[in-house]
Amino acid sequence: MNGARHARAVALMVVVTLLWSSAGVVSRHLQAAEGFEVTFWRSAFNALALVGALGVMRGRALWQGLSSAPPVLWISGLCWAVMFTAFMLALTLTSVANVLVTMSIGPLLTALLARMVLHHRLPLRTWCAIAVAGVGIAWMFGREVQAANARSLLGMLVALAVPLAAAINFTVMQHTLHGQGDPDESLGGGMGGETPATLDMLPAVLIGALLSSVVMLPLAWPLQASGHDLLLLAGLGVFQLAVPCLLVVGLTRVLPAPEISLLGLLEVIFGVLWAWLGAGEAPAASALTGGLLVLGALVGNELIALRQRAGSASG
């Protein structure tokens, strides 16, 4: 791989994680919008941005493709809708740190589900990473139970729907591809890395945004967002979702999936940091402990994978 091209791709992936990580701190500065309405507006603005961008990129072919899309595209769109919806609802119920750490187990859940459903072999390092990350998440949930913080515990359970939906999304698409590809190679992080490169994911993202906004609208009614809130939520829909989704699909053609997964973990660090500095939301000790276990497991797993592949390539 060309060194300069790789460096540009890495820098762009860091920008993607910065954009992803902005949701928590921005949501803490909303004035009137709450719960379902926050989710509705973000998904609606995301859908509008994707319609505009994909319309320019593909023209009529976009809508013609959706009208004749295979079932896997609609299943994937439903998974994206769950991810979009659960993420913002979770942020209204618990801390940014709790949400992001819970979501960060997505790559490991994907590996586990691929093993259970598709019978893919997992290396020992991934089994170890799953075990360590499981301890970290269990620690976080256990501390919330001990503290009798029902609202925060509910938020973490809602956040858990995000990596579960991402894992199902990947597994369904892998099954459609007749089990092609190494699942351990495909454990990309964040919004785009879990997608096999041979599938056109962008229309599914649009479907997810449309479904999320349509389902949330009656629950959010009557709408109460101020002009200030709408400006912030429009920024989230466009720059925290639509733009990174478009960028990361292109990056999957340049960066290997384990590297995307490793860089994607920066979202957790950035997101917690922005919420701390920009909204005064210091992470709890349980989130820090659980987060260190989860992130340590993920980083260790991906670093070993990168080293093994580098060794194989040089050999």
TrEMBL record:
It comes from the Bacteria. SUPFAM superfamilies: Multidrug resistance efflux transporter EmrE. InterPro entries: EamA_dom, EmrE-like. The keyword Membrane applies. Keywords: Membrane, Transmembrane, Transmembrane helix. The chain crosses the membrane at residues 38-57, 69-90, 96-117, 124-141, 153-172, 201-224, 230-251, 260-279, 285-306. Residues 9-141 form the EamA domain. It holds the Pfam family EamA. This is EamA domain-containing protein. It comes from Sphaerotilus microaerophilus.
